[in-house]
Amino acid sequence: MNGTSPLDRIRVVLSHTSHPGNIGAAARAMKTMGLSRLYLVAPRHFPDPEAEARASGASDLLAAAVVCRTLEQALADTVFAAGLSARRRDLSLPVCWAREGAARLVQRGRSDEVALVFGNETSGLTNEELSLCHLPVMIPTNPDYSSLNLGAAVQLMCYELRLAVAAPGAAPASELPLATGEEVEGLYAHLERCALASGFLDPSQPKRLMLRFRRLFARTALEREEVSILRGLLASFERPKLRKKS
Ligand code: SAH
């Protein structure tokens, strides 16, 4: 996609939404701020008349919404994802506030596909869903009552994105192509395979180590070529070449 604004490369992903009215409210919130790309991961009810009613004049976004079975699918061709969470989690990456999160998304969105991911109304994003994101983002709120309505959270973040696009002096994006979500997932699967085969990874407890790897790599902006190098290295461990003795 070759949009003229970073907003064209930012998709809003709503995961496991229970109430179709919130999907409509999110579409309306997006359109008012100039965003248009809505992805829905396993929504409980969609399409739905309640979504249409709450979208008001933004039903074009609902008509174009992409429905996916898993969050992995919704992020497959993205290079960067911010996960919105109202609470801090164990072992998560350092959290950043909404304004900085929006600035970082816009910076990446100048050259690449990026995503803003929202969780279910009751349970929020699962830890597994958050582990597919590179940046946990919180909207500053009253610590004793921190959970916003989903549509309101989408509205605030889209507003911050609009402000961030207008802000001058955003740092230029990387020159080299970044790895997509699908490519990075391929690297994690390869790492896990090798670590199991070598005996480094305890097969009864694979999750924790893999979460640590995700946390490590999510702090960097992995380039496509770096993923290839790492996978080449792993492949060389799997099939060591016989070296001639000199
Ligand atoms: N009870 C859930 C909140 C669900 S609200 C929880 O504790 O996580 C639905 C979604 O709106 C959340 O998954 C999150 O994506 C977003 N959201 C609501 N309040 C937020 C906040 N203060 N900061 C960041 N995201 C928030």
Question: Secondary-structure blueprint of this entry?
Answer:
Layout: E1 10-15, H1 20-32, E2 37-41, H2 49-55, H3 59-63, E3 66-68, H4 71-75, E4 80-84, E5 96-97, H5 98-109, E6 114-118, H6 127-131, E7 135-138, H7 150-166, H8 181-198, H9 206-218, H10 224-238
The structure holds S-adenosyl-L-homocysteine.
The site of S-adenosyl-L-homocysteine has 18 residues, from helix 7.
Question: Would you kindly provide a brief summary of this structure?
Answer:
The protein has helices at 20-32, 49-55, 59-63, 71-75, 98-109, 127-131, 150-166, 181-198, 206-218, 224-238; strands at 10-15, 37-41, 66-68, 80-84, 96-97, 114-118, 135-138. With 246 residues, it is an alpha/beta fold.
Tell me the Rg in angstroms: 19 Å
Strand content: 5-15%
Order of helices and strands: EHEHHEHEEHEHEHHHH
Domains counted in the coordinates: how many?
Answer: 2
CATH classification, class level of the largest domain: Alpha Beta
Number of helical runs? 10
